[in-house]
Amino acid sequence: xxxxxxxxxxxxxxxxxxxxxxxxxxxxxxxxxxxxxxxxxxxxxxxxxxxxxxxxxxxxxxxxxxxxxxxxxxxxxxxxxxxxxxxxxxxxxxxxxxxxxxxxxxxxxxxxxxxxxxxxxxxxxxxxxxxxxxxxxxxxxxxxxxxxxxxxxxxxxxxxxxxxxxxxxxxxxxxxxxxxxxxxxxxxxxxxxxxxxxxxxxxxxxxxxxxxxxxxxxxxxxxxxxxxxxxxxxxxxxx
Length: 239
What we know:
By secondary structure, this protein is an all-alpha fold.
């Protein structure tokens, strides 16, 4: 399959407004990793291996609390569970691409890569899909690695007395606020957050995992009670 420079540049152009948000997020992730005891090399290795900002921050926070490996794996799995839905949605559109390349595209999957790609592919069926996706995803990967590396090396120079661990909950709050757009999201956030505080003394930090599961379940139930707005009328569905 010949490389389409036009499609790659189209993806790059579409995602470029996101760059300003990626840099501080990546730097905070790098600083936070060092603040809980990881070396800059370990922080960079984690960023390359995982490449998922929210999951990296969740794992870093749990590492700082001394959580067990199973708890960290379960938590990051739940945080990244949406990627399975993204993949299922994109799979039919990327089916003609060879399996090794599809695996590489899966590694590069982010919210932005999915969002821009699915909208573009539906709007323009002639767009070369592999190269557009790469145009969105590869700049984000490169920028994220540089930003987390910069944050890790900066964090290594900061005295421990500065207690930079506060950056982790602040960053999660910054990610959470824009995501609460309706009542089901608010129910999930309030119940999950409240239970995570109430169950903080459970062994192995299992309170966070349990609170997450209950919060997700409550949000799903609330979505049945308060369906999303109708795309045709813009009014809320029947209660």
